[in-house]
TrEMBL record:
Residues 20-110 form the DUF427 domain. It comes from the Bacteria. The lineage of its organism: Bacteria, Pseudomonadati, Pseudomonadota, Alphaproteobacteria, Caulobacterales. Residues 123-166 are annotated as: Disordered. This is DUF427 domain-containing protein. It holds the Pfam family NTP_transf_9. InterPro entries: DUF427, DUF427_sf. Residues 140-166 have a biased composition (Basic and acidic residues).
Length: 166
């Protein structure tokens, strides 16, 4: 086991924005809790919490590799709509001391899976997180009740004996 140092630095930084992984036309991971690992002069790697990844599209493989700094990596193959990417995902289930933050998280080979940052403000520029909460509280749960009083209708019924039908 080797420890990161000046000759081989490794830094882990919480991502400042949402990240997604996209494969075969589907978002397979979406998180606002990513970690960015920068190792020496290698490209940065985004690690996703397992609970934010669609594990139903992955199958564990027999492949394993060893990094003297991080430990033993296990691999998964992706299968989405008949498209298969063998060993495209890796994880350190029991990393070396000092790398505990990536334990159980998943990373993707970016030559097979598109990994990209998401600007929530751009995607949801008209929506504020509290707006969603308000909608849920005022929406009928299907049993005729809602958590808060129903909002007044935003339309009126036409003044015609047949309503709006003609």
């Amino acid at each position: 086991m080797l420890k990161p140092g000046p000759d081989h630095p490794i830094t882990l930084t919480p991502a400042s924005q949402r990240w997604r992984a996209y494969y075969a036309g589907h978002v397979i991971a979406d998180t606002d809790d990513a970690l960015i690992l920068q190792e020496a002069n290698l490209p940065p790697v985004v690690y996703f919490p397992r609970e934010d990844v669609g594990m139903e599209y992955m199958a564990r493989t027999d492949r394993s590799t060893h990094c003297p700094y991080k430990g033993d990596a296990a691999y998964y193959t992706l299968n989405m709509d008949g498209q298969i990417a063998e060993n495209a995902v890796w994880t350190y289930e029991h990393p070396h001391p000092g790398m505990d933050a990536i334990e159980g998280r998943l990373a993707f080979y970016t030559d097979r899976v598109e990994v990209y940052p998401v600007d929530d403000e751009t995607l949801n520029h008209k929506r504020h997180p509290d707006d969603v909460d308000q909608v849920v509280q005022h929406t009928d749960a299907g049993d005729g009740h809602s958590q808060r009083e129903h909002w007044a209708p935003t339309t009126e019924t036409p003044d015609h004996p047949d309503g709006g039908l003609r």
